[in-house]
Amino acid sequence: MLLAIDVGNTNSKFVVFDKDRIVAAWRLRTEAKRTADEYAAWVTQLMNLQGFDPKSIKGAILASVVPAVNPHLRRLCETYFHNKLLIVGEPDCDLGIKVLIDRPAEAGADRLVGVIAGHTKYGGPLITIDFGSATTFDLADKDGNFIGGVFAPGVELTIEAFYLMTARLPRIRVEKPAHVIGKNTVANMQSGIFWGYVGLIESLIKRIRAEYGEPMKVIATGGLASVFKDEIGLFDFIEPDLMSLGLLEIWRRNRG
């Protein structure tokens, strides 16, 4: 079995693959100071609760946007699973694609993993949209090479800024309001957040496609993708496990 770890700015996702099939998945808040022993106590207990023997893990791969956690996860895999950890972005990890941007080293591991997963499953050219701490639009050409993208503030980040940078505005949830014109403070905020992001996403997809000059598939992922899917008729697919599938594909490319 393969342990695939995706570390984001907010949450970390641990997925166990049995060949092509996801047989377990767990989430943990990302903490840069969490030790390997703490990770081990958490993940091995969950494995035991679900009937997995930790000794069944025969490989491990990591994509991380928080470099401070990487040494702890490396030690977790080496000490408790007796596996060398393959880390996306390190020299010994072959992605099998070209990174065709001005400074290839700047491309985040999550962005590269996402386009690899999207191209492997759906082909290209394509746009992957990840609704995370940031809303990222990443592009691959017909051969699967990474060719750039767009960053926008994440929806939750915008909501938190509303709350922290104002004296009287409350925290709100992301949901579709009953009307565009709000009759109270919460409805005003929900309308601006929801319909503002619908407009942002639709506009960027259309502009990216127009500039690229060819049809491009759109694959959305992240917890909020389903919130917007009914209002944005431009998603071809929603893939909740995009990052995990990309890690599986990269592992295969490195292990033949």
Features:
256 residues; alpha/beta; Nucleotidyltransferase, domain 5; 2 domains; 5-stranded mixed sheet; 7 helices; 37% helix; globular
Could you give the topology of this structure?
Blueprint: E1 2-7, E2 11-18, E3 21-29, H1 36-49, E4 59-64, H2 70-80, E5 85-87, H3 109-122, E6 126-131, E7 134-140, E8 146-153, H4 155-164, H5 185-212, E9 217-221, H6 225-228, E10 237-238, H7 242-255
Parallel strand pairs: 1-4, 4-5, 6-9, 9-10
Antiparallel strand pairs: 1-2, 2-3, 6-7, 7-8
Helix pairs in contact: 1-2, 3-7
Name the strands of the widest sheet in spatial order: 3-2-1-4-5
Number of separate helices: 7
Mean of residue pLDDT values:
93
Overall, the morphology is globular
- Assigned CATH superfamily of the largest domain: ATPase, nucleotide binding domain
- Radius of gyration, in angstroms, nearest whole number: 19 Å
**Number of folding domains?**
2
Largest sheet: 5 strands, mixed
CATH architecture of the largest domain: 2-Layer Sandwich
Q: What percentage of residues falls in helices of 4 or more residues?
A: 25-40%
CATH classification class of the largest domain: Alpha Beta
Output the helix-strand order: EEEHEHEHEEEHHEHEH
Structural class: alpha/beta
**Structure summary, number of beta strands:** 10
CATH level 3 topology of the largest domain: Nucleotidyltransferase, domain 5
Strand content: 15-25%
- Residue windows where pLDDT falls under 50 for at least 5 positions: none
